[in-house]
Amino acid sequence: MYKATLLLIGALGVAACTNPASLGGTNALSGGGANAGAPVPGSAEDPTSVAFFQQAVGDRVLFEVDQSTLTATGQATLDGQAAWLSANPDYTAIIEGHADEQGTREYNLALGARRADAARSYLVSKGVAASRLRVVSYGKERPIEVCSDEACYAQNRRAVTVLAGGLTS
Amino acid sequence: MMWRLFALIFSLWAGLAAAQGPLRIEITEGVIEPLPFAVPDFEAENAAATQMAADLARVVSADLTGSGLFREIPASAFISTPASFAAPVQYADWKAINAQALITGAVAVNGSQVVVKFRLHDVFSDRELGDGLQFVGTTEAWRRMAHKVADAVYSRITGEAGYFDSRVVYVSETGPKDARRKRLAIMDYDGANVQYLTGSEAIVLAPRFSADGNRVLYTSYETGFPRIYVLDVGSVQRRVLESQDGTMSFAPRFAPGGRTVVYSLSQGSNTDIYTMDIASGASTRLTSSPAIETAPSYSPDGQQIVFESDRSGSQQLYVMPAGGGEARRISFGEGRYGTPVWSPRGDLIAFTKQSRGRFHIGVMRTDGSEERLLTASFLDEGPTWSPNGRVIMFTRETQGAGGRASLYSVDITGRNLRPVRTPDGGSDPSWGPLQK
């Protein structure tokens, strides 16, 4: 129930933010016609879209301080990623490993590599072809949250699966 | 006044005060009271030199006072000023205001050429210390001539090489924390004459000078993956050194001879240390533990490499032979140790330490003994040595959403912490050699 609510909010968010042209477009005009209920291609409702992968499947897993071991939550997210990648074989992915700012630059690069590789290895173990996955570490160079508290650090200690290629609509 | 007070407080526990005997500072004895000196505006030998005559004296003074070893006596205290560079010095006038060292100079500007002459006087001995010197250069390089004067003064009084006529390569930073833009920059050691060596399209990290200052190694994401590049400072031409597919390479440093690079390569979850012969591209793996091994730095004789590893469970410092082989751990204090850098004198290793939520720059002897922490802040990291091994420059980053990185320097006694002014934020400094 909780999950479904989140998904709905996510979907609305994308429709509003990234695809404003579709508002009042085809879907609205077609009313109750043949297209009713069909997702806008590329939107978060389209289960083959990047937006769906990012929001419904979840494109990132988080790590504990100075750790690269996958949490149970992280494994569940990666299970979803593996299933999605298996269903959408045209996509490849780059897994980005990141660290929070509490560490030296070089160490954090190596730590980010460990995190990215932990996610990559898990996906491969779930049947994703290794040739479809590449890894890169950004160390502490690309935080998404900027505060210097654990609330932000927790979001920055991440491995993000970034899709590339694939059929874009 | 504040500075004077500060110096006095330190001298209580450090003991030594500059005596009014021979003009001499023993740096090795630790913290001292700054030696008072006077540097009147240089004599302008022609009209074109008027502005430079004053500017040169100001740069010489800034260098000497910036070292923390000298204190300038302001011109307002002067009883007399030299009638000319050639005229005899009235030592009594300088003794009366307790100027232990007096620096006099003259400058002529002819077109694009500058000729700078200077003398150093040991006031309480009524004589010159060393011979007068003359430097010739272009008007563009006038600051370098001031730095050379200051280096000569520093060297004659301390008995050690100076570090003022040197440059620093670093990463210039702009933009907020979550959209930081970085590009390589080079500047004089004091933050003057900043020039940019790369654009900011791709992340660049941790530039490292060659021993001769002509080349810079750095890490760039220009292919989308971290790769090591070597850049020629003169031509600004660069080429990638390590581009093995499916790997990431970073943390490069030159070996003393400049023909070999030591660096880290990540493959899968593992990061190890390798060397590469620059000419042939042939690489050799030096470590093979499944731990993170990174941040390697050569001893100045090229025989050993200090690096960090978490093979014990946390980041610690290790020393191994330059060809690889058994490594011995040298850090045993509380906390984590990283980014070790061997001093150019060979006697100390500078490092970053994380302990109890704080970051420190510290130094220890090469066997790990006599650890001393020089700084403490939310985030200090990445020390680099002045060419004479007496000063350390590093990155300090402030916390929070508005966090900003900037460069600081501190001397190896932990005294004289000061910001290095750069036009934008700055990180990852690498201090080059004393210029010829």
List keywords for this structure.
heterodimer; A: 169 residues; alpha+beta; four-stranded mixed beta sheet; 44% helix; 15% strand; globular; B: 436 residues; mainly beta; seven-stranded mixed beta sheet; four-stranded antiparallel beta sheet; 4 helices; 31 strands; disordered N terminus
Report what the structure shows.
The complex is a heterodimer of chains A (169) and B (436). With 169 residues, chain A is α+β, with helices and mostly antiparallel strands. Chain A has helices at 2-17, 26-30, 50-58, 72-87, 105-125, 150-156; strands at 60-62, 91-98, 133-139, 158-165. In chain A, α5 (105-125) links the parallel β2 (91-98) and β3. In chain A, α1 runs antiparallel to α3. The longest helix of chain A is centred in the last third of the chain and has 21 residues, at 105-125. The model of chain A is unreliable at 1-34 (pLDDT under 50). Chain B has 436 residues and is mainly beta. In chain B, a hairpin with a 5-residue loop joins β13 and β14 (238-242). The two termini of chain B are 37 Å apart. Classes of the chains: A alpha+beta (169), B mainly beta (436). The interface between A and B is medium-sized, with 29 and 39 residues.
